[in-house]
Inverse folding.
C-alpha cells in the first residue's frame, strides 16, 4: 500500500524590533545578563498593563506582504492561559481569533505554491535552565515580538518541508523583520506530519514535531516521521495525535504528550488592549516599504551571474542588496562567493560591507589590468580591515604595493635593461631560434626587475616586439 | 485651602487624621498606616509654604488609599495573603497624580481580597465595620475607604468599582462615591480585578471635592491603552430637563426605606420642573448573569500571575513545580477568590466558551444599547444603589448568591461603562445610611457631578 504524506508547518519568527511587544524595554538581549531586559510589565507585577509597540505592527505588515498575504484591517489580541515559570502573566498575549495577517502563499524553488493560512502577532516566553534540584528563570525573552506563520497542509515530502522552511527564512530576512539567526532560535519550526492512503478522502492522524531550528532538522524530522508512521500503519496500528520532540543527535522523534491530556488554554479576548485598526492608506504605505525580495534579485541577476553562485549568494540579503548597487556584478559576485564567504569571519564581515564605490573601483582596476586577480583578492580582503577598510580602493592597493606597472614607457625601459643584461643573451638567442618556451623566462626576469609590479602580458608583448 | 492660607499646618492636619484613624481602630478600616512617610511629607509641605513656594491643589490634604493601588510607600496587599510580602517599586498613575498635587496618604484601607465581594468580609485582615453600626458591614469591596471618609478621618479616599465596589459602600456609609465613565482614570498600577469593567474613583464628602479629584486624576495615560482621550475638563454642561427612573427596579425586593428615599428625590425633581420619565429596560435583568460570567473570566485570567514564582507568598509545603502552583494558590487565595477563579476557568474552558463567554458578550452589547437608547430619552437616570441598607455582618457570608444579588442594580452600569455617582439620601429610623445613584451617558461625568450638587443644595434648603 502506498501512503501519501501531508505536511503543514507552523513557524515562529522573532521580530528584530528595538523594544519589546508590550513594553519599552530593549528587545535585543544578546550578550546581556539574565533578567536585565525586563520591565514591570514583562515581569507581570500587579496592576501592570501592556502597551503596544507600533514598530511590531509595521514589521507584521512587511512580513505578511513578503508572503503575498492579505493584511487584516482589524485584528485583536487574546489571552492564552497556561502555568509555567516562563510565562510571568500566566498567559501569553497572542491573536487567536482575529490575526493581523490573512491568507497568502510562499513559492518554492520548484514552482510549488504553499498556501499560508494566516499569521499572527504574539509575545515570546522566557527561558528556563534546569539543574538537579532547581531551575533558573530568565525573562529577557518575555514578550519579544513573534509572528507565528501557519501554513496550509500543502507539502508532501521532506524536501517540500525543507524548501518551504528555507524559502520562509529567506523571505523574513529579505523583509528585514528578523535577524534570522537560526542557531539562536530567531526562527523555530513546528512540523505536522500525517499519512493517508493514496486516494483517501481524508487526511490521516497527525503528529507534531516541535521546536526545530534548522532546515536540515525539518527535513530529517519529516523523513523520520514518514518512516515511523508508515511502519505503524503497515503493522495495522493507529497513529496517536501527539506532540513529539526532536533529537538531533539520534535523528529520532519521541512522544512528549498526547492531545488527550493536552492543556486547555482557555482563550479569551485581551481586555487590556483595544483592537488594532489599520487604515488602507497605512497598510499601503507600509507595504511599499517592503524591500526587494529574493525573486526580484533572481530576476535581476539571472544571466549576469552564474546560477550556482547566485543560489549561494541569495542566502545573504546584505550581499544581494550590495550587489544591486555595484556596476560589475559578475566580478563582485565572485569576490563575494569565493573570497568573502570562504573567510572564517564572514558572518562578522557581512555586517560591514565595503561601499559600492570601493567595489566598483576594484572591478575597474582589475579590468584595466592594474591589479592581478591575486592582488584584487588581497585588496578586497583589506576592505574588512578595521584600520584600512574604509580607505579608497586605490589607496589600499598602493599600501599593499600590488598595483601592476602599466606605464608602457616605463615598462619598455625595464625590458631594455633586461635585454641588455648579458645573463639573458642565451635566452634571447634561443627564442629567436624558435624556442617559444623561453619567453616565460624573459617575462620572469622583467617581473623580477620591476619588483613584481609589471603587468606580465604587457611585458610579454613588448618582449616579442623587441625580439622580432 | 486651609493649609495654603496658613490657617492650619499640614503636620497638624496629618496628625489629626492619624489620631482619628487610631481612635477608630476597632472598625478595622486600615490594613496599614503610613505614619512616618505622611508626617515627613507634611513637614516638607509646611516648609515649602513657609518659604513662599507654590504648592499643589491638594497640598497637605490627608487621604486614604484602597490597598489595591500600588504605591512605593509600604506594602500593597489587596487584602490578600498571596501578596505577602509585596513592596511595589512603582506608584500607580492615580497615586502619582494625587501626590504631585501634595495629597498625603495616611494609610491603606481594607477591602474584600482582590476586591471580590460586597461587604469587606472577604478580607484576609478581617471585616471592616460600618460607620454607623458595629453590627453592620461597611459594604464592599472598598469598605475601608468608605468608612474612613464617613468617619471624617480623611478628606477623601480612593476606590475601585468593578460592579459597585465604590457606590455600594458609599451608600452604606452616607458619603459620595463616584464610578466615572470606563477609561476616564488610568488603571495603571491598580491590582486588576476585571479589566473591562474596573474603574478608579473616589469617596468624598462633597461633589465639589469629587470634581477637583476628577480634574486632577482623569485623562489619557500612555500606560493604559484603554483610557479615553482627555475630555473631563472641557465637558459641556446643559441643565438636566429629563430624568429617568427604571420601572424594572421597582419591585418587592427593594427595601421600603430606599423606595421612599427615591420617591422623595423624584418629587423634589418634579417640583423643580424636571420631567420624570419611566424607562423600560428589560435587558437589565440579565445583567447580573452576564456580569458573573465576564467578570470571573477576567478575574481568573488576571489572577494567574500570582503563582509564587516571582514575588509574594510561596507555600513552604511545595515540593515541586505543580505544588508551588497548587499549594501557593490554595493557601494564598481566599474562598471567594477561588470561587471566582473556578467559575471563570469553567466559562472559558474549551467547549463552553461559545455557550457562556461569547453569549455573555453579546448580551453585554444589548445592555450597552439599552443604556444608549435610554439616554436618548433622558439626561440622567436615578435608581437605588443596592436593594437594602447595610446588612448584618455574617448575614450573607454563607450564601454567595444572595451576596451577588447585592450588585443587581450596580453591575449593569459597569457592563455599559457609563458613569454613576452614589449620593447620600438620608437615614433609616435606626440611623443606617441610605444612598441613591445618578447614572449618566458616557463622558457626562462633569455634568453628572454638577447635577448631583444642585440636587443636594436645594433639597437641603
Amino acid at each position: 500500500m502506498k501512503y501519501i504524506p501531508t505536511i503543514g508547518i507552523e513557524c515562529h519568527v522573532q521580530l528584530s524590533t528595538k523594544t519589546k511587544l508590550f513594553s519599552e524595554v530593549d528587545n535585543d538581549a544578546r550578550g546581556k545578563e539574565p533578567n536585565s531586559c525586563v520591565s514591570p510589565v514583562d515581569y507581570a507585577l500587579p496592576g501592570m498593563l501592556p502597551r503596544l509597540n507600533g514598530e511590531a505592527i509595521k514589521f507584521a505588515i512587511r512580513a505578511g506582504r513578503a508572503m503575498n498575504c492579505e493584511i487584516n484591517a482589524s485584528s485583536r489580541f487574546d489571552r492564552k492561559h497556561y502555568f509555567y515559570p516562563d510565562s510571568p502573566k500566566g498567559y501569553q498575549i497572542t491573536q487567536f481569533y482575529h490575526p493581523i495577517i490573512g491568507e497568502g502563499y510562499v513559492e518554492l524553488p520548484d514552482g510549488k505554491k504553499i498556501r499560508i493560512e494566516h499569521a499572527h502577532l504574539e509575545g515570546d516566553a522566557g527561558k528556563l535552565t534546569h539543574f538537579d534540584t532547581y531551575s533558573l528563570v530568565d525573562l529577557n525573552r518575555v514578550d519579544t515580538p513573534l509572528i507565528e506563520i501557519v501554513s496550509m497542509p500543502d507539502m508532501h515530502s521532506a524536501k517540500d518541508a525543507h524548501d518551504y522552511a528555507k524559502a520562509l527564512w529567506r523571505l523574513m530576512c529579505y523583509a528585514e523583520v528578523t535577524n534570522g539567526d537560526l542557531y539562536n532560535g530567531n526562527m523555530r519550526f513546528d512540523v505536522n506530519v500525517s499519512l493517508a492512503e493514496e486516494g483517501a478522502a481524508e487526511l490521516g492522524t497527525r503528529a507534531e514535531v516541535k521546536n526545530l531550528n534548522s532546515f536540515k532538522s525539518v527535513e530529517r524530522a519529516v523523513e523520520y516521521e514518514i518512516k515511523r508512521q508508515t511502519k505503524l500503519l503497515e503493522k495495522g496500528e493507529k497513529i496517536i495525535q501527539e506532540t513529539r520532540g526532536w533529537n538531533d543527535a539520534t535523528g529520532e522523534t519521541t512522544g512528549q504528550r498526547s492531545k488527550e491530556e493536552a492543556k486547555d488554554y482557555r482563550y479569551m479576548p485581551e481586555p487590556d488592549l483595544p483592537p488594532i485598526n489599520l487604515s488602507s492608506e497605512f497598510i499601503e504605505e507600509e507595504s511599499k516599504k517592503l524591500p526587494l525580495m529574493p525573486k526580484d534579485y533572481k530576476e535581476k541577476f539571472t544571466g549576469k551571474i552564474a546560477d550556482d553562485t547566485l543560489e549561494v549568494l541569495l542566502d545573504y540579503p546584505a550581499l544581494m542588496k550590495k550587489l544591486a548597487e555595484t556596476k560589475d556584478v559578475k566580478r563582485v559576485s565572485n569576490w563575494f562567493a569565493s573570497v568573502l564567504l570562504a573567510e572564517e569571519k564572514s558572518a562578522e564581515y557581512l555586517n560591514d560591507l565595503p561601499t559600492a564605490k570601493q567595489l566598483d573601483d576594484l572591478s575597474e582596476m582589475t579590468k584595466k589590468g592594474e591589479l592581478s586577480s591575486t592582488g584584487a583578492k588581497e585588496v578586497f580582503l583589506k576592505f574588512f580591515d578595521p584600520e584600512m577598510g574604509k580607505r579608497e580602493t586605490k589607496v589600499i592597493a598602493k599600501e599593499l604595493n600590488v598595483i601592476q606597472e602599466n606605464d608602457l614607457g616605463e615598462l619598455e625601459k625595464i625590458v631594455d635593461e633586461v635585454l641588455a643584461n648579458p645573463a639573458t643573451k642565451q635566452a634571447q638567442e634561443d627564442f629567436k631560434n624558435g624556442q617559444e618556451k623561453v619567453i616565460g623566462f624573459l617575462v620572469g626576469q622583467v617581473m623580477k626587475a620591476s619588483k613584481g609590479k609589471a603587468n606580465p602580458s604587457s611585458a610579454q608583448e613588448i618582449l616579442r616586439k623587441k625580439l622580432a | 485651602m486651609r493649609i495654603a492660607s496658613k490657617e492650619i499646618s499640614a503636620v497638624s492636619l496629618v496628625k489629626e487624621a492619624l489620631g482619628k484613624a487610631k481612635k477608630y481602630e476597632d472598625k478595622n478600616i486600615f490594613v496599614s498606616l503610613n505614619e512616618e512617610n505622611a508626617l515627613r511629607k507634611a513637614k516638607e509641605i509646611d516648609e515649602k509654604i513657609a518659604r513662599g513656594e507654590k504648592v499643589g491643589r491638594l497640598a497637605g490634604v490627608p487621604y486614604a488609599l484602597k490597598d489595591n493601588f500600588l504605591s512605593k510607600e509600604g506594602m500593597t496587599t489587596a487584602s490578600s495573603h498571596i501578596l505577602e510580602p509585596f513592596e511595589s517599586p512603582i506608584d500607580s498613575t492615580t497615586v502619582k497624580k494625587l501626590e504631585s498635587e501634595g495629597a498625603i496618604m495616611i494609610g491603606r484601607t481594607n477591602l474584600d481580597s482582590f476586591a471580590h465581594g460586597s461587604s469587606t468580609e472577604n478580607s484576609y485582615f478581617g471585616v471592616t465595620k460600618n460607620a454607623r453600626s458595629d453590627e453592620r458591614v461597611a459594604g464592599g469591596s472598598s469598605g475601608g475607604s468608605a468608612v474612613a471618609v464617613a468617619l471624617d478621618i480623611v478628606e477623601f479616599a480612593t476606590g475601585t468599582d468593578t460592579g459597585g465596589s465604590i457606590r455600594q459602600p458609599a451608600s452604606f456609609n452616607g458619603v459620595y462615591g463616584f464610578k466615572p465613565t470606563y477609561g476616564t482614570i488610568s488603571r495603571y498600577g491598580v491590582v486588576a480585578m476585571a479589566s473591562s469593567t474596573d474603574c478608579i474613583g473616589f469617596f468624598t464628602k462633597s461633589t465639589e471635592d469629587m470634581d477637583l479629584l476628577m480634574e486632577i486624576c482623569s485623562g489619557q495615560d500612555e500606560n493604559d491603552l484603554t483610557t479615553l482621550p482627555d475630555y473631563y475638563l472641557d465637558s459641556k454642561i446643559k441643565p438636566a430637563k429629563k430624568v429617568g427612573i427604571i420601572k424594572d427596579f421597582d419591585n418587592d425586593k427593594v427595601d421600603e426605606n430606599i423606595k421612599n428615599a427615591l420617591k422623595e428625590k423624584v418629587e423634589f425633581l418634579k417640583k423643580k420642573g424636571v420631567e420624570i420619565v419611566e424607562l423600560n429596560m428589560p435587558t437589565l435583568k440579565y445583567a447580573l448573569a452576564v456580569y458573573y460570567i465576564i467578570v470571573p473570566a477576567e478575574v481568573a485570567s488576571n489572577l494567574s500571575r500570582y503563582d509564587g514564582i516571582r514575588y509574594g507568598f510561596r507555600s513552604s509545603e511545595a515540593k515541586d513545580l505543580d505544588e508551588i502552583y497548587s499549594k501557593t494558590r490554595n493557601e494564598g487565595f481566599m474562598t471567594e477568590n477561588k470561587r471566582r477563579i473556578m467559575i471563570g476557568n469553567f466559562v472559558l474552558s474549551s467547549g463552553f466558551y461559545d455557550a457562556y463567554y461569547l453569549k455573555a458578550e453579546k448580551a453585554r452589547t444589548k445592555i450597552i444599547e439599552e443604556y444608549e437608547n435610554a439616554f436618548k430619552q433622558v439626561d440622567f437616570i436615578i435608581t437605588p444603589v443596592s436593594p437594602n441598607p447595610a446588612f448584618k455582618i455574617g448575614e450573607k457570608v454563607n450564601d454567595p448568591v444572595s451576596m451577588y444579588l447585592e450588585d443587581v442594580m450596580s453591575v449593569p452600569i459597569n457592563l455599559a461603562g457609563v458613569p454613576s455617582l452614589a449620593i447620600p439620601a438620608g437615614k433609616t429610623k435606626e440611623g443606617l445610611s441610605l444612598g441613591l445613584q445618578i447614572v449618566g451617558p458616557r463622558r457626562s461625568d462633569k455634568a453628572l457631578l454638577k447635577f448631583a450638587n444642585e440636587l443636594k443644595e436645594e433639597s437641603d434648603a
In short: Chain A touches chain B at residues 40, 43-52, 79, 81, 83, 85, 88-91, 135, 137, 264-269, 271-274 (CB under 8 Å). The domain at 408-467 of chain A is CATH 1.10.10.410 (Arc Repressor Mutant, subunit A). Chain A has a mean pLDDT of 93.
